Amino acid sequence: MTSPPPFLSFENVSKRFPDGTQALQNASFTVKAGEFCVILGPSGSGKSTLLRTVNGLVTGYEGTVRIEGVAVTPHTLKTMRLRTGMIYQQFNLVQRASVAHNVISGMLAATSTWRAMLGLFSEKDRTKVCELLATVGLQPEHLKRRVSQLSGGQQQRVGIARAFMNDPDLILADEPVASLDPKISRDIMSLLRKEARERNATVLCSLHQMDLAQEFADRVIAIRQGRIVYDGHPSNISRVIEASIYVGAGEEHKIEAREDQRPLALAHSV
Q1: Do 44 and 124 lie in a common domain?
Q2: What is the pLDDT of residue 226?
Q3: Which domain does 56 fall in, by range?
Q4: N or C: which end of the chain has fewer CB within 10 A?
């Protein structure tokens, strides 16, 4: 009896931008269903590029990205997006629109264009907006408030509610707390993990903060200059993170994670 394919897989994914920047170099790993996986690395390391290959925001890469064994291609992208929710660093909300409008826009991938333009969402969808806002800690009075009137932390709560609006199997969170202060960052990360676990959603979250990765991730994929330099449990990172990820130019290293998750050995990459 064959085992099911991993929920998400990256197979030798490489991406070079037109200006010559090599953003990704042969990135390969898999993510299990329900896993909270953090892509960790400094600014410019390629982690956001990697994450955005999943929903088609980055195209023209070499290699293959699969969701439950099905390759992400122009022909399958619409179906894949129906299964995916996205949370952005800068929230990506319509500032002049209401909180309710922004949350219900999470249904756009599953709604015809003309119905969306006319605001013809079902009563069930409208009820779900209220339920999700309550779940992320916002009050009924926030429903009609303009997003521009909210704090950064409140706006990201709206972003999380929007991401879960379509009951996705996969959440892509691209630096979701980069613009928030440390306390609010932990609140948002706690909320994201809680909501994902309750819905058994898989999370792929890019971060540059090692402490948050260690606190919230089930697993960490660390990336530097487009290469994966660590794949393993977050508790094993601290003694090698500076040398392998955040140091400047120098000899590349790769840390091989052992299956039993005991302390890792640092090895030169080939």
Answers
A1: no
A2: 93
A3: 1-83+171-270
A4: N
Q: What is the 3-state secondary structure (H, E, C) of 167-196?
A: CCCEEEEECCCCCCCHHHHHHHHHHHHHHH
- Counted domains in the chain: 2
Contact 109, 79 (CB under 8 A): no
Q: Which residues make beta-bridge pairs with 37? A: 204, 219
Cα→Cα distances 75→16, 70, 115, Å: 23, 11, 24
**Residue 249 in domain:** yes
Using DSSP bridges, classify how beta strands 219-224 and 84-87 pair: parallel, antiparallel or unpaired.
unpaired
CATH number at residue 182: 3.40.50.300
Asked if the structure places residue 89 within a domain, the reply is: no
Q: What are residue 133's DSSP bridge partners?
A: none
**Residue 177 CA to its chain's centroid (Å):** 11
For residue 268, the one-letter residue type is: H
Q: Domain check: are 213 and 259 in the same one?
A: yes
Contacts of 152 (CB under 8 A, 6+ apart): 91, 179, 180, 184
> Is residue 114 assigned to a domain?
yes
Q: How many residues does the chain have?
A: 270
Mean pLDDT, contiguous 10-residue spans, the chain (270 residues):
81 95 96 96 92 94 95 93 92 91 80 54 84 92 93 95 93 94 94 95 94 94 92 80 60 36 30
Distance between CA 198 and CA 178 in Å, rounded? Answer: 24
Q: Report strand pairing: 84-87 vs 170-174.
A: parallel
